[in-house]
Amino acid sequence: MIPLIETAPQEEIQAFQEQKLAEALSYVAENSPFYKRLFEKEGIDIATIKTINDLQKIPVTTKEHLQEFNDDFLCVSKSAIVDYATTSGTSGKPVTFGITDKDLDRLAYNEAISFACSGIKEGDVVQLMTTIDRRFMAGLAYFLGIRKLKAGIIRVGAGVPELQWDSILKYKPAYLITVPSFLLKLIEYAESHGIDYNASGIKGAICIGEPLRTQDFEPNILAKKINSKWDIKLYSTYASTEMSTAFAECGHFKGGHHHPELIIAEVLDANDKPVADGDSGELTVTTLGIEGMPLVRFKTGDIVQLHHEPCGCGRTTMRIGPVIGRKQQMIKYKGTTLYPPAMIDLLQSFSDIQSHIIEISTNSLGTDEILIKVAANNATEELLTEIKDHFRAKLRVTPKIVFVSIQELHAVMFNPMSRKPVNFIDNRI
Fold this sequence. Notes:
Distance between the termini: 49 Å
Strand order of the largest sheet: 4-3-5-6-7-8
Number of strands: 20
Number of helices: 11
Shape: globular
């Protein structure tokens, strides 16, 4: 189930996207109060925007714009909205997205081709281990995509290893959709209850929310931990509510494949200019085919690198490498630039560390300060020294690290109002 456009020559993909771009700009110019106002204020004639490069004539849209003018992005009457979704709010005030019936069809198509890219096929059974409620777009999208793919789905939801294993053993799914670190909890439960997880029939896991690869596409510490025990394929995906589009890995595990029929992707520098090929920058997207709340040049906040060489799977579309970090979460510490994913990967290399929270604040000098709270099985001075030495060797700096109880950490990490575990807190002024 590979759409023909995803195996077309680059010139054909570009021409196709430019046609879709013209349609998208015409639609927002007519129907979006926000973009009508923007185009008028900036004196933008959308008829002059004919190529992807011409997009640079349009100012970027930011998360702050979405937060301040949320309703002005809606392009249809509220009577046409059939579902309301919100962003997670992990980096600011949550934003509401109105979704039409046509948008749900688009979501289903996106997830169906993304899951097919990662090896799921008609007739497979898939266990959904994320929430489908609480205004979470992704859970709904997964359900719709599996249904469109004509595969079966078991809607277990998040957490509860006992219930997960009960469903796995009873219904024999071939794939799981999950946060990858939860797979370690499943392994732990299975080992303590005599379950042979390698004989469970699970072929692979579609993983969300956490990286599995380094920037050169090698398995990171988390992926190695999982695969050292459980012989299943781990597929990374990247998506967001704002994009309503996923970038999914194929079996060659070389980044998330772009769906050119659904989204235009740019990577911009600090001055909102395209970066040179091979350089990293902020992913900026223009959505295609969305009826309710389409976006033009939306800055996702995620720092990524694009890869353009054809993939062994036959797709010629560009691929997005693992997220380096969120722009908003960039830390300048003692002259070194850090992102949380690098610190999280390092902490995951210690088997004695159960959980952690990274807290960033502003010190009396006005610079960034890092405090890492760690819950460990073996909280000794020797372990603390080993962790600090590892930070110094790998990241060239040593933040402040303290041991706390697992109960103290979990009280903060598992906020009932949050859909995701909280392991990064930014208290900077």
